[in-house]
Description:
This protein is mainly beta. It has one helix and eight strands. Strands 1, 2, 3, 4, 5, 6, 7 and 8 form an eight-stranded mixed sheet that branches.
Amino acid sequence: MEKVNIACAMAGIREFWQPRIAGELNGQHIKLAKLKGEFVMHHHECEDEMFLVTKGTLILEFADRTESLNAGEFLIIPRGVPHKPVAENEVEVMLFEPASTRNTGNVENELTISTLERLTAKE
Length: 123
């Protein structure tokens, strides 16, 4: 058991759209990431995904609507629902999702990460 200071961990993350594993519980990963710009529209066949914004404003585009999440707000996206995260300015998020969840879901491109890095103690 080790506590994680979210602000300190985020300070150590320099790349956008590169989630880092901050912890695990019951087959779930808790990931921290910085986002800026547009991601790819994608969905996850078998996994729900939760975005918790810790800093900034995240826009989530869906086929039928757009949701805006501010710091302290979260949204759970059910499996199979196409979504595209957009961060006009830098955003910090905590993600809760099954360990098997691939960041780009059903899409394979240059943003796809096969193996996520774990936060180190100094982060």
